[in-house]
Design goal:
The protein is an alpha/beta fold. Helix content is about 35%, strand content about 20%. The chain starts with about 20 loop residues before the first strand and ends with a helix.
Length: about 230
């Protein structure tokens, strides 16, 4: 049977001959030292420790990594390295802690794509045409909400929602679903105020009745580089 005794020769001793408190080690060095302990055991000379399990907080004994080791056994039978496992991990956990590792920088979540909401009951056909063209050109989602739906081009970027006449306030789908940065086209001051409170931008569709080119420029300015 392989001899799996682990001696104190692997640890630095203090001046009084006693082992110092746990030393914090970077992950790579901790793995190297635990591997050395494992390889000191007869029959485990080629076994490598490739990973340890960090704990969220130190346990009651003050160790901040767990009893699980990831091993590269290099062909060594489990019944051989298994004899050394318990002693290796107990000795290592008494001697070393895992140095805290900085959390990887997290990339900010991408901003939600801007959407266009149209209060269709107060939007003339000429203005709707400009808005439909803008949404398709920019590949943006446009939702027209109205009590009486007009004919709309078939497009993956255009949809329509029919609501009862007189739908207002929180019952209006635009108010419920609009998000900061969206564009709302409405001639209703109350609706404009409600969506502005949620961070949406608003424009009035009135200019589209008489000046399609001017309204198109207004829409482009409102959409910016979206």
């Amino acid at each position: 049977m392989p001899d799996t005794t682990i001696t104190e020769d692997f640890f630095a001793l203090g001046d009084d001959g006693a082992k110092p408190g746990r030393q914090e080690l970077p992950r790579a060095e901790l793995l190297a030292r635990v591997s050395s302990l494992m390889q000191s055991c007869e029959g485990c000379e080629n076994v490598r420790v490739t990973g340890v399990m960090a704990l969220d907080r130190p346990d009651e004994k003050g160790c901040n990594w767990g009893f699980t080791l990831w091993l590269d056994p290099a062909g060594v039978a489990p019944e051989v390295y298994g004899l050394a496992y318990a002693q290796v991990i107990a000795t290592a956990r008494e001697s070393w802690n895992l140095q805290p590792e900085p959390e990887p920088a997290r990339e900010p979540a991408p901003a939600a794509p801007m959407r266009i909401w149209v209060d269709g009951d107060g939007c003339a056909a000429a203005a709707r045409y400009v808005l439909f063209r803008a949404a398709e050109r920019r590949k943006m989602q446009l939702t027209l909400v109205a009590s009486k739906l007009p004919r709309m081009p078939t497009s993956p970027y255009l949809r329509a929602l029919q609501v009862p006449r007189g739908t207002e306030g929180a019952d209006n789908p635009i108010v419920r679903e609009v998000a900061a940065g969206d564009l709302v086209v409405t001639a209703d001051p109350a609706l404009a105020g409600a969506v502005a409170a949620k961070g949406a931008r608003t424009i009035e569709p009135g200019q589209g009745k008489t000046d399609r080119k001017g309204f198109a420029e207004q829409v482009d300015r409102a959409l910016g580089k979206a």
